[in-house]
Design a protein that fits this description.
The protein contains 5 helices and 6 strands; from the N terminus they run H-E-E-E-H-H-E-H-E-E-H. A hairpin with a 5-residue loop joins strand 1 and strand 2. Helix 2 packs parallel to helix 4, helix 2 packs antiparallel against helix 5 and helix 4 packs antiparallel against helix 5. The N and C termini lie far apart (58 Å).
């Protein structure tokens, strides 16, 4: 009887371990750049840890030219090799919130993600410039 119980427990443990290893691999597909994506979802790519000051400054200019007062008032980064990605994500989030507030009275068909299409494009262009996916 003990032998049957031990064998059953060992088999259950082996099946559980196999399911933990196989399930994530079969549920995701490798994307060209090495990131994993779950079927039917967008690829998830982690934000970089740091960004180059030139990329931050260029993104800041894109947002300021699109009308972001927050970006216009922020100081350009200089004298540093890298800056934390939080500088970029904060800049993007502030501009996004500002644009959404500014564009709140536009008709729905003139908006994308609750902001005008030019503002939406500026935000995404700035994010792409800094290599940021999530903000």
């Amino acid at each position: 009887m003990q032998f049957i119980v031990r064998t059953g427990m060992a088999a259950a443990l082996a099946v559980g371990a196999l399911a933990a290893v196989v399930a994530p691999a079969s549920a995701s597909a490798v994307v060209a750049d090495g990131a994993h994506a779950v079927s039917g979802a967008h690829p998830v790519v982690a934000n970089p840890k740091t960004i180059k000051p030139a990329a931050y400054n260029q993104a800041r200019s894109i947002l300021a030219n699109a009308g972001s007062q927050t970006a216009a008032k922020s100081h350009p980064v200089h004298g540093k090799d890298d800056v934390p990605v939080s500088y970029g994500t904060s800049l993007l989030a502030a501009a996004r919130d500002e644009f959404r507030h500014t564009d709140r009275n536009l008709p729905a068909k003139q908006k994308k993600s609750d902001m005008s299409i030019p503002h939406y494009n500026a935000i995404h262009s700035a994010a792409k410039t800094m290599g940021i996916d999530r903000w």
